[in-house]
Amino acid sequence: MGAAMLAAYGCGWFSSLQECAEVFLAFGKSYEPDMEAHEIYKELFLLYREIYPSTKKVSESLSMYR
């Protein structure tokens, strides 16, 4: 989006980048982090890091079936 905005501004279609941004950008729904889910994902990632060395070779062998 930034490149398109700079190109439009550079072509002289807008008198300022602020004006360009007001036309190009629209703000939608905002999201807040789910800290409960974050804690669960942190725990799962720790398990993954513990298990991965044992399963790495099997995962590599399975990759040929993708």
Q: Quaternary arrangement of the chains shown?
A: single chain
Number of helices: 3
Q: How many separate domains?
A: 2
Rounded to the nearest angstrom, the radius of gyration is 23 Å
- Listing every helix as H and every strand as E from the N terminus to the C terminus, the arrangement reads HHH
Query: How many E strands?
Result: 0
Distance from N terminus to C terminus (CA atoms, Å) equals: 33 Å
Shape summary: elongated
**Strand residues, percent:** under 5%
Largest sheet: none
The low-confidence runs, each spanning 5 or more residues with pLDDT under 50, are none
Helix content: 55-70%
pLDDT averaged over residues? 94
Structural class: mainly alpha
Protein name: Sugar (Pentulose or hexulose) kinase
Keywords: Kinase, Transferase
GO molecular function, one term: kinase activity
InterPro entries: ATPase_NBD
